[in-house]
Design a protein that fits this description.
By secondary structure, the chain is an alpha/beta fold. It folds into 2 domains: about 50-75 and about 90-240, Rossmann fold (3-Layer(aba) Sandwich), CATH 3.40.50; about 250-310, Alpha-Beta Plaits. It is about 30% helix and about 25% strand. It has helices spanning about 35-40, 65-75, 95-100, 115-125, 135-145, 160-170, 190-205, 215-220, 240-245, 290-300, 315-325; strands at about 10-20, 40-50, 55-60, 80-85, 90, 100-105, 175-180, 210, 225-230, 235-240, 250-255, 275, 280-285, 305-310. Strands 6-7-8-3-9-10 form a 6-stranded mixed sheet, sandwiched between helices. The chain has a 4-stranded antiparallel sheet with strand order 2-1-4-5. It is elongated and about 80 Å long. The structure holds adenosine-5'-triphosphate and magnesium ion. Magnesium ion binds near residues 66 and 67.
């Protein structure tokens, strides 16, 4: 067992066990209700183990607890209970070193409008005690396509530029873990590609990435591991490919040449859904190799098939399926 975290790199970049956050009750005037009286339970014993070296995606619907979890890592929100280790450093025991191991880009951007990007990064580097000779201000601005804005007031930057500036700010102390809370919100397609390219490059250099996103295709493309959080609980955490495979169901959409009144009984094993009289949806499990059986069954009905398309399961389906199984708290 390693006794000195400096001597060997930790296996886990972030480890979260039984994390609970209950926001303080709202005692002021307002709508009232259970959450207001008891305080909102935003995280309900969440567990998460983020391997070193990967790109980890945290997905979940609005209000699931993603930002709460990230803000606890950033020490912007105090946890109610549970254990958090960043780079094997306990958040409670050594908050300063835990902070040095992580860079966080929060969902809400607050940038002092009267600082220039260069001044802001210098200030941030100073706060983290990065010596002048080791500062990479211009290199970071360059990497995020902001070098021509180095001396402009932050208030004159567009939303996408501000978000990129926040990424630069999170990286000034060269942390081994970078956390991005919905980094592509408000960033246009081209700059989004640039931002992802930068994130990938950092990851190639060994930085562990944790991000939240609402763009499921993006998570599927970018992340090697994905966790799904709902009602403050982590309900799935798996390698992306495994998660996608989990439902192991493919959909076949048949376009029919004549109206179909009712689904022939022989198709019952394929979970048929009649979309309308001319469109029939069937399902099969690729791992069972049932596609041939499906075709045979369809042929045996004598239906006239005009078109056939198969639909791959994507994260959206898995996400809906998983969150549907989870009863509301
Ligand atoms: N400061 C706060 N005080 C009280 N309740 C809060 C506070 N911040 C968040 N909440 C509540 O905690 C729950 C989780 O919020 P959180 O911001 O973590 O969700 P999220 O998953 O990041 O959602 P989104 O996708 O919309 O960003 C929500 O019900 C939210 O209303
Ligand atoms: Mg959020």
């Amino acid at each position: 067992m390693p006794t000195n975290s400096h001597a060997s790199l930790p296996d886990l970049a972030v480890s979260i066990k039984g994390l609970v956050k209950r926001y303080a009750p709202n005692t002021g005037k307002g709508s009232g209700g259970k959450d207001a009286a008891q305080g909102k339970l935003a995280l309900d014993h969440a567990d998460l183990a983020i391997q070193r070296g990967g790109i980890f995606g945290l997905l979940g619907p609005n209000g699931a607890g993603k930002s709460t979890l990230i803000n606890i890592l950033a020490q912007l929100v105090r946890k109610t209970d549970g254990e958090v280790r960043i780079w094997d450093i306990d958040l409670d025991a050594d908050p300063r070193h835990a902070a040095a191991a992580i860079g966080v880009v929060p969902q809400e951007l607050n940038i002092d409008p009267f600082f220039t990007p260069r001044a802001l990064l210098d200030l941030q580097a100073g706060m983290y005690g990065v010596p002048k000779a080791e500062r990479r201000t211009m290199e970071l601005l360059e990497a995020l396509s902001l070098s021509d804005k180095a001396n402009a007031y932050a208030r004159t930057l567009s939303g996408g530029m501000r978000r990129r500036l926040m990424v630069a700010k999170a990286m000034v102390h060269n942390p081994p873990v970078l956390v991005l809370d919905e980094p592509t919100a408000g960033v246009d397609v081209e700059l989004r590609q640039q931002l992802w390219a930068y994130v990938r490059a950092l990851n190639d250099q060994g930085v562990t990435i944790l991000l939240t996103t609402h763009y499921l295709e993006e998570a599927e493309e970018l992340c090697d591991q994905i966790a799904i959080i709902n009602h403050g609980k982590v309900i799935a955490c798996e390698p992306t490919a495994k998660l996608v495979k989990r439902l192991d169901t493919k959909e076949v959409l048949l376009t029919l040449g004549a109206d179909l009144e009712s689904v022939p009984a022989v198709l019952a094993p394929f979970a048929p859904e009649l979309k309308d009289a001319r469109h029939l949806r069937l399902h099969y499990r690729p791992s069972d190799n049932k596609f041939g059986a499906l075709l045979d069954a369809v042929r045996s009905t004598g239906m006239e098939i005009v078109d056939l398309t198969t639909v791959e399961t994507d994260l959206e389906d898995i996400f809906l399926e998983l969150t549907r199984r989870q009863p509301a708290a």
